[in-house]
Amino acid sequence: MKITIHNQNFVLHQSGAAFWEEEKILFISDLHLGKIGHFRKHGMAIPEKAVLENFTRLNTVLELFDSKTVIFLGDLFHSKINNEWNFFSDWTKTHSQKIILIEGNHDIISKQYYLDLNIEVYSELIIHDFLLTHHPSEREQLFNFCGHIHPGIKLKGMGRQFLSLSCFFRKPNQMIFPSFGEFTGNFYLIPEENDQIYAITKEEVIEIKR
């Protein structure tokens, strides 16, 4: 699905990533690498192959879009270093795109790990009229791209039927990105009058009309 913000074109993908056409930037938020390994370490019965699913999805969107830069909007790695870091390190060496991390609250490992992989790390970044942060922020005359919330929407059907979907949650001067990572969960938001909801299905992103 393609949308326009401040005269710039963005493609919203059902993975939860978004591609800025003019700047050839791919945005991804809340990947939470290492979380599956953390769960497994504490006895949760998650198949080991689930670790590789995040990288499969990453490869899919990178192959789909002609990106020059990948910007992670925070919470790239869930917590302390574990074996999933080795997968990520190997993954970065198979791609030529510049990688930037906007620090999130879960990004607690030393910046040196990222610098060693030629990944640039910032607390926030401004590109043209866009403010890139992890936590939702407001800045006069800037449109904010952010994550952190893991937004979802609940749609009511006939009777007591409900459908729960991840979504891109757009406010007048802000868009909150869905979580890209597996096993990260959603926080269900209630849209206000001027909000726009772009819900994610397995096949596409669709705007929810109210």
Automatic annotation (TrEMBL):
Q: Which domain of life is it from?
A: Bacteria
Q: Name one GO molecular function term.
A: hydrolase activity
Q: Which organism is it from?
A: Flavobacterium saccharophilum
- Can you give the residue ranges of the Calcineurin-like phosphoesterase domain? 24-120
Q: Extract the PANTHER family matched here.
A: BLR1149 PROTEIN (PTHR39323:SF1)
Report what the protein is called: Putative phosphoesterase
